[in-house]
Design goal:
CATH architecture of chain B: Orthogonal Bundle
Helix content of chain A: 55-70%
Shape of chain B: elongated
Oligomer: heterodimer
Number of strands of chain B: 0
Helix content of chain B: over 70%
Number of strands of chain A: 0
Radius of gyration of chain B: 19 Å
CATH topology of chain B: Helix Hairpins
Largest sheet of chain B: none
Radius of gyration of chain A: 26 Å
CATH topology of one domain in chain A: Four Helix Bundle (Hemerythrin (Met), subunit A)
Strand content of chain B: under 5%
Structural class of chain B: mainly alpha
Number of helices of chain B: 4
CATH class of one domain in chain A: Mainly Alpha
Structural class of chain A: mainly alpha
Shape of chain A: extended
Number of domains of chain B: 1
CATH superfamily of one domain in chain A: NADH-ubiquinone/plastoquinone oxidoreductase chain 6, subunit NuoJ
Largest interface: A-B, 97 and 87 residues
Number of helices of chain A: 11
């Protein structure tokens, strides 16, 4: 500890003193710039795979913002569910659907222009709303104490018990989130069963469009590699 | 509002300590990028990624409003409610992504493309 502080003091003494750096603001700027730049890159990228990669970076940087705001449980959930789960799902979707002519489907220039104007107008409205309230712009007091961990109060609240401090001025019974938790869990179960039902490989009476497209290519190429329909349906006849 | 109000606020964000307005700006940019991604991409997976960005921008705002450290002294905050809402949004986004990907796979199996402009059987 002392060796580290001495080393850091030695390194930074000619330039900015290390103690004067607001690390919270510095890391906020880093994560915010990463999140915003990668979100814009998702819009600008043409390839689906690159879009997925930029989306991973943007969502991960947002998890860093959650940690900085004192919501470490939500940040961990963001990393596990979004970056770990949803993105794996998306990449599987890319692998199952992307073929060479379909990877980059470009919008027309007029569409791009129109979308840019709509986006700029929407951003201007949202930013003005963000700056409108004086209380939101007021610089926060420097937090002398570390924020209280929120994982335990959040977990207890999901079980129906509130152990966190009540908001100033609030009285009466505060309810937990047991019922929404149950609703969401049943919802997830139904949704995943439904997704598995929707995405299953079906036996078909009429030839699919993908088979028609595959039969249009020369037979030499078809015999060289198995057709994609055989891969999707698991090799069933 | 006019630029005389807008520009000093944007410049003051860089010097002021981090507050709710900083997070709101990040959330606004993520939301706008998501909306533009949704309306611009013709790839169904690109539309899905736009939806994820929109939900993520909303989550940034929820978490920022729930944090008492980002507010001025004495100001009310959402407290634990904002974080719980953010959790539910994340879970429902995962469910939505699963169903939407299943629909996309089905669409790809039937049409041999993921171009959403080709889905026009229901057009009146």
């Amino acid at each position: 500890m002392t060796a580290f502080s001495g080393l850091s003091g030695q390194l930074s003494s000619p330039l900015v003193p290390l103690a004067a750096v607001d690390w919270h603001a510095a890391f906020f700027m880093l994560f915010a710039a990463l999140a915003c730049a990668c979100a814009v890159a998702v819009v600008l990228a043409d390839s689906v795979v690159r879009m997925a990669f930029y989306l991973v970076l943007s969502l991960g940087a947002t998890a860093g913002l959650f940690f900085l705001a004192g919501a470490e449980f939500v940040g961990a959930m963001q990393l596990m569910i979004y970056v770990g789960g949803t993105l794996v799902l998306l990449v599987f979707g890319v692998m199952l659907t992307a073929q060479a002519p379909f990877v980059a489907i470009k919008p027309s220039t007029g569409d791009k222009l129109l979308a840019g104007m709509v986006g700029a107008a929407l951003l201007a409205v949202l930013l003005q709303a963000a700056f409108r309230v004086e209380e939101w712009r007021r610089p926060a007091v420097a937090a002398a104490t570390a924020p209280a961990p929120t994982a335990t109060p959040l977990g207890m609240a999901l079980l129906g018990m509130r152990v966190d401090d009540p908001a100033p001025g609030s009285t009466g019974v505060r309810s937990g989130y047991l019922l929404p938790f149950e609703i969401v869990s049943v919802h997830l179960l139904v949704v995943l069963v439904g997704a598995a039902y929707l995405a299953r490989a079906k036996r078909r009476r009429t030839p699919r469009a993908i088979d028609v497209a595959a039969s249009a290519v020369p037979t030499v190429e078809r015999s060289a590699r198995p057709s994609s329909s055989a891969l999707i349906s698991g090799g069933r006849p | 509002m006019n630029q005389a109000f807008f520009l000093p606020c944007a410049a003051g964000l860089l010097s002021a300590p981090v507050g709710v307005a900083h997070y709101l700006v990040v959330g606004a940019i993520l939301f706008t990028a998501g909306v533009v991604c949704m309306v611009l991409k013709r790839n169904a997976l690109g539309v899905l990624m736009g939806i994820e960005l929109v939900l993520n921008g909303a989550n940034v705002n929820f978490v920022a409003f729930s944090s008492p450290e980002l507010r001025g002294p004495g100001a009310a905050s959402l407290g634990l409610d904002g974080q719980a809402i953010a959790l539910f949004v994340i879970l429902l986004a995962a469910a939505e992504a699963a169903v939407a990907l299943a629909i996309t796979l089905n669409f790809y199996n039937n049409h041999a493309t993921v171009d959403v402009d080709r889905a026009e059987e229901l057009k009146g």
